[in-house]
Every structure is written in structure tokens, then in C-alpha cells.
Amino acid sequence: xxxxxxxxxxxxxxxxxxxxxxxxxxxxxxxxxxxxxxxxxxxxxxxxxxxxxxxxxxxxxxxxxxxxxxxxxxxxxxxxxxxxxxxxxxxxxxxxxxxxxxxxxxxxxxxxxxxxxxxxxxxxxxxxxxxxxxxxxxxxxxxxxxxxxxxxxxxxxxxxxxxxxxxxxxxxxxxxxxxxxxxxxxxxxxxxxxxxxxxxxxxxxxxxxxxxxxxxxxxxxxxxxxxxxxxxxxxxxxxxxxxxxxxxxxxxxxxxxxxxxxxxxxxxxxxxxxxxxxxxxxxxxxxxxxxxxxxxxxxxxxxxxxxxxxxxxxxxxxxxxxxxxxxxxxxxxxxxxxxxxxxxxxxxxxxxxxxxxxxxxxxxxxxxxxxxxxxxxxxxxxxx
Length: 384
Fold this sequence. Notes:
single chain, alpha+beta, Elongation Factor Tu (Ef-tu), domain 3, CATH 2.40.50.100, 4 domains, seven-stranded antiparallel sheet, four-stranded antiparallel sheet, 15 strands, AaeA-lik-b-barrel, coiled coil
């Protein structure tokens, strides 16, 4: 019997069995439930904290708006910008061996500075030869002028002889006519008439010969004038050859047309270069910034607006400038192979438009050249 009895837990043995105790327990639970229902809300418990938090939130929203309005809204910026310049190659205009290279890599030169010299010997010979041709042409002109003078004298002499023969011919004609009349009247002799006719023929022949001499003298004069014109043409040709030879001689010295820097120098003393062969690249002092803005950033962008710039290589140098111009078209429109959107499936892509920005003053203590990255910030709207 003792083993068959069920073990009674301690909590059951301690559980009150008095009905009054059960009533008190139920009243206590009901009282706790009422107190829980009457507990005030968080807003009622902490009203000032909620109000202060709301005010702080509103102030934060207004502060964010004013920060955007002052520090972001008036500006447009892009990281697709770089230093740009009209760089070009320095090439020899004439062929030959380089005698001297007077500059170093990345050296700054002034306008007119000598960069390299090609051996001028062949071109100096060409100049001397052209000068000799000029002297020869001048001598030919002088000779032709003398021949013209001689021809003029010969023409004058021939015309004088012609005038003399004209007088002799006129006398012979009168004499022959008179003798012919005397013979017809029976007063003259046949022999005298024949002699007069012979004299007339001789005078006529002398007159024809004088005319031929005049014609010959005039033709000699024309020939002399033609020689003079030919010599004058030869003189002009020789002068042109001399000018060309002197120009080639000047081209043998390669100079800078404007101030700038010599970069990528490849020419060296003793090197043979052909006409048009580049020996270096030249970067002019005139440089600017080309910034590729999105087309959605150009609504308020106009020339003359102020720009603040920072160079990636020298972030401690803050530069100032202004918008010079906006390219009338996107960058791809002027590329070698522009996009053809009329064929295939079209996907709209925001285009970028190059904007030229000029800098007021470039720093002189650092080297700045084309291709260096720049971050421009353009003030396109008035600051509030």
C-alpha cells in the first residue's frame, strides 16, 4: 500500500485549500489587470521629449534643405574634365642630317627660339647657284640692251640711206622721163634715153636695198628686244630660285613659332630626317580645360559663369576661371564614326557635351599639360 500511493508534489501540498484564500488571489489578479489598463501612453508619459524630438527632426530637414540650396543647388560639376591644348608636332621642312639640337626634354622655349638645325651646306650651295643665275640673267639683259641700241643705230642708218635712195630714185625718174620726151620729140638721142633708163633701174634697186636694210635693222631690234625679255624672264626665274633656296636655307633652322614646351623629343645630332618628319611635340602656353558635362546639366550653363577648379595631381591648388563656350553638339556627333541611332534597337543614353573653360591664372610652380584630370565646379545659379 505504501508503494502504491502516488507521490504528491510539494506545490500541491502547499496550495491553499481555503476558499477565502482563492478569493483573495482572484481579487489581486483583477487589481493588477486594472492597474495595467490604466497605465498612460508614451506621449502622455513623455510629452516634452516627443515635442523636442519633432522640433529637432523639422530643424534637421530645414538644415538639410538649406545645405542643398546653398552648397549643391547653385553648382554643376563633373569628373570628366581634363586640361586641353592645341598640341602639334615639330617637323623638319627640309631633309638632311641634324647638326644640333639646342633644347632638352620638356623645356620651355620662347617664340623664335632655335630648336634644331639641319646641315645647311646643300642649301647654301643652292643659294649661291641661284645668285649666279641672277648675275648671268642681269648680264644677258645688259647685252640685249646693248644690242637694242646697236639695232636702233642700224635702223636710223638704214632709214637715212633709204631717204637718200628715195631722192636718187626721184631724180632718176625725172631724168628718164625728160629723155623719153626728148626722144619722142626728136631732140634727144636714143643713147641718152637708154642711159637714163639704166640710171632709173639702178636707183630703184638702191631704194629697194635701202628698204631691205631698214627692215633687217628693225628685225634685229625686235630680236634684241626678245632677247632682253627672255633675259628678264630668266632673271625672275633666278630670283625665284634664289628665294626658294634661301627659304630652304632658313628651314634648315627649326624655330618655335610661339612660346611653349618641347615634349617627346626624338631628334638627335647626326640623325637623318626627311622633309616632314617629326622630331618632337610642341605644347603651346595657351591651355584650357575641356569639361564633358551631361546634357541634363546644361540648362542654366552660359558663357561667362564663374568656375572653381581643382587638379587631381595638385589638389592643394584651387584655380578660378569662367565658362568660355559650350560646343553646339555632343562629343560623339563630331567623332570619326558617329553613332547611328536610326538603325537597330535604340537605347537612350544621356550624352555629354564638351564645355571650354578658361583659367584666370595657371600656377607657375608646377607643370601642367594636356590630359591632366580636372574637377570643375560651375556656378550656374545665383547663390542664396
